[in-house]
Inverse folding.
């Protein structure tokens, strides 16, 4: 029963992340929008690694590309890289204090931006504006909120 | 050697193996290369359009729509009255302009009739609204609520009341995706209204900037010059405002004059846009005329020569 609730929470959170990614914001705030799908996958990969594999990351990335992307496979590649790193260092990430987790998430997201720039460079796109690099910082700031929120939700689901 | 044991612990420790990572990376790269060559994403998106993509777009736009509706519901009468007055003033101004245009139109018709031109100036347009969805803040795309079922085609120019906004790059069943003129991968052939100089305006990636990096150094370009579409290239019809030059200086290499222009269209504010129906000119040079009556030996340029005409 709790298993089913957890599955439901997992699916709903990912669907919500996709929508949040596309919800319009005022122009000045656009650059600050964190990469919700990435953040959420990091969370689920740390907490329930049996659910999150590279295959899921790849599939979700393809979905994201179909929804918002420009090149099929770009976000799939970025998510696979992200999830791989998280799963590899999961044992350590899990027991980090919150501020270290934030730093780790920041590093992950910055690394993801580098990967994105590389992919877009190969695809022949111009170097994005410097505001491209703001989102990882807001993502790292949003991490504690997301972490605490979903921990509370999962505790409630278990009860 | 302990290599084998190292590997074993490596695989045992992490649930995820490097081999699988490599496989997925290779697949992702292959998909990207294929898509880059073949443009499969557009086809997948068109295929999944009705069931997945469009509902997701509408759903994502919902909060903004609700917020707007709420604002309209609670807006004070004072604001409404002010807005009404402003709109009326704008309407007056627009009508005055239209009157002047009417005169020009009549004059134009007469001149065109004189020139025996077949094209008319009547613009067939389709009205469309923006769906408020953010696809990627670093790529300048907007989503419209008209698609293939409403007769939208890839390549249709999109304008608003002030000028050219961009062109349709992808069509879904009931919505379409438009690339704005400020997208870094967009270029539009323009002509400087005052001097008639032809050049190309590139998107800069900033919503309020167009770049004209290669104007001849001897050309006469001033701040305040207006840019119009030149109609060359066959994508945008001629004579629509594109922008206004706000800065002009020598380029870094010193070989050209580089100018910065401000787009004329309200790219970040427009809620309603017009899709131009008629594709302006056929792409490429005009078709050669049927073989001339008089036999001519030389295989000259295909363009019909006017010299023989009385």
């Amino acid at each position: 029963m709790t298993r089913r609730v957890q599955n439901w929470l997992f699916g709903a959170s990912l669907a919500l992340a996709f929508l949040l990614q596309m919800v319009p914001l005022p122009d000045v705030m656009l650059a600050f929008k964190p990469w919700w799908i990435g953040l959420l996958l990091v969370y689920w990969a740390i907490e329930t690694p049996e659910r999150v594999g590279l295959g899921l990351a790849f599939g979700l990335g393809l979905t994201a590309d179909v929804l918002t992307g420009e090149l099929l496979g770009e976000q799939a590649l970025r998510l696979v890289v992200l999830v791989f790193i998280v799963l590899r260092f999961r044992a350590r990430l899990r027991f980090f204090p919150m501020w270290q987790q934030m730093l780790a998430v920041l590093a992950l997201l910055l690394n993801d931006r580098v990967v994105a720039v590389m992919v877009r460079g190969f695809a022949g796109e111009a170097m994005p504006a410097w505001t491209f690099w703001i989102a990882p910082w807001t993502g790292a700031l949003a991490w504690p909120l997301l972490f605490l929120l979903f921990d509370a939700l999962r505790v409630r689901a278990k009860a | 050697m302990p290599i084998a044991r190292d590997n074993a612990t490596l695989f045992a420790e992490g649930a995820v193996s490097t081999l699988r990572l490599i496989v997925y990376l290779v697949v992702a790269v292959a998909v990207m290369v294929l898509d880059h060559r073949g443009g499969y994403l557009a086809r997948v998106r068109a295929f999944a359009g009705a069931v997945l993509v469009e509902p997701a777009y509408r759903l994502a736009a919902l909060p903004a729509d609700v917020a707007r509706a709420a604002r309209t519901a609670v807006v004070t009468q004072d604001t409404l009255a002010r807005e009404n007055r402003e709109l009326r003033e704008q309407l007056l101004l627009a009508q005055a302009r239209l009157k002047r245009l009417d005169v020009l139109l009549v004059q134009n018709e007469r001149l065109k009739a004189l020139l025996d031109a077949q094209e008319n100036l009547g613009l067939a347009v389709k009205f469309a609204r923006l769906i408020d969805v953010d696809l990627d803040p670093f790529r300048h795309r907007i989503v419209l609520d008209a698609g293939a079922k409403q007769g939208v085609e890839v390549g249709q120019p999109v304008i608003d009341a002030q000028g050219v906004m961009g062109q349709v790059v992808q069509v879904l069943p009931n919505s379409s995706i438009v690339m704005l003129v400020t997208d870094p991968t967009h270029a539009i052939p323009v002509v400087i209204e005052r001097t008639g100089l032809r050049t190309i305006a590139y998107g800069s990636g900033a919503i309020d900037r167009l770049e004209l990096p290669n104007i001849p150094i001897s050309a006469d370009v001033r701040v305040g010059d207006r840019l119009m579409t030149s109609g060359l290239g066959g994508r945008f019809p001629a004579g629509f405002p594109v922008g206004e030059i706000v800065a002009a200086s020598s380029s870094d290499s010193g070989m050209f004059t580089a100018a910065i222009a401000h787009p004329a269209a309200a790219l970040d504010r427009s809620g309603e846009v017009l899709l131009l129906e008629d594709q302006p000119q056929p792409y490429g040079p005009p078709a050669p005329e049927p073989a001339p009556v008089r036999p001519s030996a030389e295989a000259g340029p295909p363009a019909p020569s006017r010299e023989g005409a009385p």
About this structure: The radius of gyration of chain B is 26 Å. The first strand of chain B starts at residue 125 and ends at 131.
